[in-house]
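Handout, section B. The chain below has 232 residues.
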Amino acid sequence: MDIYTIIFLALAVFIFLRLRNVLGQRTGDERPPYDRAARDVLRAPDNVVPMPGKVLDQAPIASSEEETPAQDRWKGIAETGSTLAKGLDQVVSNDPSFDARHFISGAKSAYEMIVLAFANGDRRALKDLLSSEVYEGFDAAIKEREQRGEKVETRFASIDKADIVGAEMRDRSAQITIRFVSQMISATRDKAGTVVDGNPEKLTDVTDIWTFARDISSRDPNWKLVGTESGQ
C-alpha cells in the first residue's frame, strides 16, 4: 500500500472511534422510538361510539359549550333564558367538557343499542349502559320472558327525533333527559313461534323519554341510563 492509502485508513479508523465515543453503542436496552400514533391508540377510550361499550362519552374540551357566546350556546336545542337552557348552563358550569350536540348523537346510538340488547336479552351489553337500578328492571323483564320461552324480534326503521327536554345537576350528578321519536318493527313470539304481541310486518311509532346521568366527580367519562318512561 502507498502512503496515501495508509493515511486514509488511519483517518477512517480515527473517525469511527470518535463517532463510537460520541454516539455510544446499542445494547438492546434502548427505549423504542417515540410513536405518537401508537400512543394515541393506546390512550383512546374503549369502544367509543360518539354514547359513546361505552357510548355516551364526553366531547373534547376544545369543543366545549362554554366557549360559545351565551346567546348562541343552545341554538336549536333550547330557547335562551328557558328552564332547559338554564339547566344546560348549570351542567356546563360543572362539566366544561359537555357538548350537547355530541351528546345527542351519542344518545341516539345508545338508544338503539339498548333497545336491541333488551330484545336480544344481551345482559352484558346492558350492564355497560344502564344504572344498577334500571338494569335490575330490565333483567327481571328478560327473566320473565325467558321463563315463558318467548323471543322478541325488533328492528329499527329510523330515529326521527332526539330532543333534550330536561337538564339539571343533582349533587355531583349531571342528568340529561331526551325525548326519542322512532319507528320500529317489534313482535314477540312464543315457544311455538306464534306471534303473541306486536306485528312482525308493521311499522310502529314509538316515543320514549329517557334520562341519562353521569357523576362528574368520577374519572369515568361515560353516561348511563337512569330512568325511562313512555311518551305521547
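Note. Residues 3-41 form one domain. Compare this with the example in section A.
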